[in-house]
Amino acid sequence: MSSTATQRQQPNPAERVMQVTTGFLGTVALNAAVEINIPDLLAGGPRPVSELARATATNEDALYRTLRAVASLGIFTESEPRKFANTPESELLRAGAPGSLRDMVRWFGDPFHFRIFAEYMHSVKTGKPCFDKVMGKPIFEYFPSDPRESEMFNNAMTSFSAAVIPAVLEAYDFSGIRLLVDVAGGHGQILFSVLKEYPQMRGILSDLPHVLEGARPRLRELGLESRCRLETCDFFKSVPAGGDAYIMKHIIHDWDDDRALTILRNIHQAAGGAQARVILLEGVISPGNESHFGKFLDLEMLALPSGRERTEDEFRALFDRAGFRLTRVVQTPTPMCVIEAEKK
User: Fold this and answer.
1) How far is it, in rounded angstroms, from Cα 235 to Cα 208?
2) Which of 225, 255, 57 has the alpha carbon at shortest distance from 139?
3) Handedness of CA 222, 228, 229, 234 (dihedral sign)
4) Among 86, 249, 231, CA closest to 159
5) Does the pTM exceed 0.85?
């Protein structure tokens, strides 16, 4: 291979700037493909774009250009001219596929998100969420008034939980926990998965009333009603009492330090026994210039709920102020870590 060809594999500075600048177009194109179910239409093998256009009632030329762009990112592949096939990445976007991220793509690619981030400079200048500026109220106060976006968000969180929980169960031993309380556990994907793996364990799923309604059918379907109860809670006021361990997935990152401390202190007060644990499923920010998904998720936290992603040292300091001691951080093959703390 010539030195010129080798050099062309690495974008020059101007190309790199343009790649980052136009990155949102990849999000738009991928969301469009997911919305019209292209990953599912390719489940049986490669198909010409003409067939895909007829099946989705879209313009053939526009669809081809959209899929060509997304395929250049490694999601889908143009296996022959004007014929596309799934890749391992696009297989993850099929509805119902194990570990499907379809609903996550739909949430991040939804026009709702672009409305919020159009005002991102407000967050940069003030340090406050631009969501409140655009929608007139904080995000978790807004969701009950918008059933569509609330459903989109909850489905996205459930799908992400389903994608990461197998790795969490493999990496972390939940043995010895008699009562596990999932604080703000959404539709119960995390808690129900742990309960299925540990049949001697009981659980409490706590969240706001409109969220818990989405968990009831799944609880019945899994036959866990005798081992798990649903309990309404406002974690800024109190959480269910008596748990041996309290688990939260992507909850603490939704809040600034003061409000995160309120949640953790309420858990400290409610927890049963001197050895009670807090188990957080969160990303842990890497130092320096290392690429890390959490560094971009941190911008989502800034713009929408006014939260933040944290480093290990920041988690340690937060726990210490709430009366806990960070005991370990367990890495998983996913962006999620298991962060464990015990009462001091």
Assistant:
1) 9
2) 255
3) negative
4) 249
5) yes
- pLDDT tens profile 118-157: 999 999 999 999 999 999 999 999 999 999 999 999 899 9
Q: Which two tokens stand for residue 319?
A: 């726990």
The pLDDT of 266-290, averaged and rounded, is 93
Written as six digits, the tokens of 269 are: 């007060």
pLDDT at 6: 45
The yes/no answer on whether domain 3-95 falls in CATH 1.10.10.10 is: yes
User: Are 263 and 235 spatial neighbours (Cβ–Cβ below 8 Å)?
Assistant: yes
Give me the active site residues, please: 253
| CA 214 – CA 152 distance, rounded (Å) | 12
In one-letter notation, the amino acid at residue 205 is L
Question: What residues contact residue 269 under an 8 Å CB cut-off, 6+ apart?
Answer: 238
* Positive or negative: CA dihedral 107, 250, 212, 209: negative
Strands in 202-207's sheet, in edge-to-edge order, are: 228-232, 202-207, 179-183, 245-249, 277-282, 337-343, 324-331
Using alpha carbons, list the distances in angstroms from residue 189 to 155, 156, 215, 286.
10, 11, 9, 27
191 vs 75, 213, 241, 283, CA distance in Å?
A: 31, 16, 17, 19
Domains 3-95 and 164-343 are alike in CATH topology:
no
* Type and span of the H or E element at 170: helix 147-171
Model pLDDT, residue 7: 47
Residues 6+ apart with CB under 8 A from 152: 103, 106, 107, 110, 112
164-343, superfamily in CATH?
Vaccinia Virus protein VP39 (3.40.50.150)
Task: State phi, psi for 277 to the nearest 5 degrees.
Answer: -115, 155
Domain boundaries, the chain: 3-95, 164-343
Q: Do 285 and 311 form a contact (C-beta atoms < 8 A)?
A: yes
Q: What is the DSSP string of 316-342?
A: HHHHHHHTEEEEEEEE-SSS-EEEEEE
Q: Please write the tens of the pLDDT for every residue from 153-179.
A: 989 998 899 889 999 999 999 999 999
Half-sphere exposure of 99 (CA within 13 A, CB side): 11
